[in-house]
From TrEMBL:
This is Dolichol-phosphate mannosyltransferase subunit 1. Transfers mannose from GDP-mannose to dolichol monophosphate to form dolichol phosphate mannose (Dol-P-Man) which is the mannosyl donor in pathways leading to N-glycosylation, glycosyl phosphatidylinositol membrane anchoring, and O-mannosylation of proteins. It comes from Batillaria attramentaria. SUPFAM superfamilies: Nucleotide-diphospho-sugar transferases (SSF53448). GO terms for cellular component: endoplasmic reticulum; membrane.
Amino acid sequence: MAPNKYSILLPTYNERENLPFIIWLIVKHFSESGFEYEVIIIDDGSPDGTLQVAEELQRIYGKDKIVLRPREKKLGLGTAYVHGIKHATGNFIIIMDADMSHHPKFIPKFITKQVEGNYDIVTGTRYTGDGGVYGWDLKRKCISRGANFVTQVLLRPGVSDLTGSFRLYRKEVLQRLIDACISKGYVFQMEMIARARQFNYSIAEVPISFVDRVYGESKLGGQEIVDFIKGVLFLFATT
Ligand SMILES: Nc1nc2c(ncn2[C@@H]2O[C@H](COP(=O)(O)OP(=O)(O)O[C@H]3O[C@H](CO)[C@@H](O)[C@H](O)[C@@H]3O)[C@@H](O)[C@H]2O)c(=O)[nH]1
């Protein structure tokens, strides 16, 4: 049987400063653990020149390790994953942020957990065990906690952190969930877990520390929050 291969989907929008660090850490942790991998960078026409940095990283680390699948304009986080999976050659997919809030040191823990329990999905949690959030102001903490509380009550997902987005999926599971999911943008992450529960996929959690970005800005704005509330109500009604 062929060894597992892990495709890391890395969506980027204005991540020029962060990209070299996150790629270096991904390469380091995969090299140390010996798992086979590729990183697929999905840049949405970032005006800060992220794609040029990605091209330079591809030159350094090689085209087999750094795959570029850019799009011309900003089309949202959810569709970036949809686009990325089309090009993934691994049998497992890892999705994570490129802004250093998700540390690649957790990836080997996700993989170990998946292998131990033969899970379909392993999801990072900030809200149990050693998990935590560092660097957010009170407003952002309240938004995240509030969103989690509401989704826990309405959707009863069986995972402690529904709005996080550091996850490992079996590729065919992710593909089926993507096909079933309607939401775009931030609520996409939440719908993925809600649909996974509907389909009876097994899900494990790994505590992670989420550290607020130092460079660049979050793309979470008023419209995303409105879309999120609409999305929760839609999932409450349909799952
Ligand atoms: N390609 C592409 N990438 C995008 C887009 N919007 C954001 N990204 C990339 O997606 C990642 C997360 O975006 P942020 O805007 O930094 O997210 P955040 O506000 O910190 O939110 C994070 O935490 C939330 C939970 O608290 C998560 O729900 C969310 O998915 C994300 O992980 C980053 O790598 C960013 O460059 C887009 O339209 N297109």
